[in-house]
């Protein structure tokens, strides 16, 4: 009814979303502290350009990607068109920031004469970015832009949902590999002695895993999924009528 208060969120959802945001902001602060305290800071030109890479990848491929996935849980009763637009916008912003990070590491390696794309970290990271870009393009084509039929959307949606969670997991795995690689390159002689930089970087890794677990839990709770809106139910009924030969009243034609 018009003027009635919006339905309340399911019990526990708001708390888990709040925990995910606290973890996300903490991991960003931890990344900044690590780069600023032990790696000299961040700059686009000069020897500090490489540090743009981990900061952008954590911000884009983990934090913003996770938040984009949570859009459908947080804005459960908003207009679906607006929710889709916000979902696509956050993913698009994450891609742009990640691209900046990729350009930074390639330019840094070129300036220092370091080869590219030889490590497991770089393979997993590039795979995550390319698949993420494809996922975003397909998602916009199927769900945001007009043209795709209800049948195609229904068939692609389960894969789209699965890839969303899988790509967040792959992105976090690539970050963990990158953290380990960075530590072994820079403090391999003292890493095993629990030096402060190693402890801080390991803490960042734990925060990344925790963020992924909390976001994954929120996304996989069936009772926390976004309820279908009235227009979606109507479309579903129309599609069933066309494909199964049933009338909306339940009788066969």
UniProtKB/TrEMBL annotation:
It is found in: Cytoplasmic vesicle, Secretory vesicle, Chromaffin granule membrane. GO terms for cellular component: chromaffin granule membrane; lysosomal membrane. It is a multi-pass membrane protein. It catalyses: monodehydro-L-ascorbate radical(out) + L-ascorbate(in) = monodehydro-L-ascorbate radical(in) + L-ascorbate(out). InterPro entries: CYB561/CYBRD1-like, Cyt_b561/ferric_Rdtase_TM. Keywords: Cytoplasmic vesicle, Electron transport, Heme, Iron, Membrane, Metal-binding, Translocase, Transmembrane, Transmembrane helix, Transport. Its cofactor is heme b. The chain crosses the membrane at residues 12-35, 55-75, 87-106, 126-147, 159-179, 199-219. Signal peptide: none annotated. Transmembrane reductase that uses ascorbate as an electron donor in the cytoplasm and transfers electrons across membranes to reduce monodehydro-L-ascorbate radical in the lumen of secretory vesicles. It is therefore involved the regeneration and homeostasis within secretory vesicles of ascorbate which in turn provides reducing equivalents needed to support the activity of intravesicular enzymes. This is Transmembrane ascorbate-dependent reductase CYB561. It comes from Calidris pygmaea.
């Amino acid at each position: 009814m018009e003027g009635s208060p919006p339905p309340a969120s399911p019990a526990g959802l708001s708390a888990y979303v709040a925990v995910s945001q606290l973890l996300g902001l903490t991991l960003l602060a931890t990344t900044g502290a690590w780069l600023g305290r032990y790696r000299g800071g961040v700059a686009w030109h000069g020897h500090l350009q490489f540090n743009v890479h981990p900061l952008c990848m954590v911000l884009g491929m983990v934090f913003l990607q996770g938040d984009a996935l949570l859009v459908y849980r947080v804005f459960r009763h908003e207009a679906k068109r607006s929710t889709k637009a916000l979902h696509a916008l956050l993913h698009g912003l994450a891609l742009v920031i990640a691209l900046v990070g990729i350009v930074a590491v390639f330019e840094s390696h070129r300036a220092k004469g370091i080869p590219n794309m030889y490590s497991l970290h770089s393979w997993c990271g590039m795979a995550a970015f390319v698949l993420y870009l494809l996922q975003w393009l397909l998602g916009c084509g199927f769900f945001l832009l007009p043209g795709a039929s209800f049948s195609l959307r229904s068939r692609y949606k389960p894969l789209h949902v699965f890839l969303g969670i899988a790509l967040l997991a792959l992105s976090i795995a690539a970050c963990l590999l990158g953290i380990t690689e960075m530590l072994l390159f820079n403090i391999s002689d003292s890493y095993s002695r629990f030096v402060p930089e190693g402890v801080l970087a390991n803490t960042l890794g734990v925060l990344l895993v925790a963020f992924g677990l909390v976001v994954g839990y929120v996304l996989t709770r069936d009772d926390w999924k976004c309820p279908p809106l009235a227009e979606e139910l109507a479309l579903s009924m129309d599609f069933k009528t066309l494909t199964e030969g049933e009338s909306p009243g339940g009788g066969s034609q």
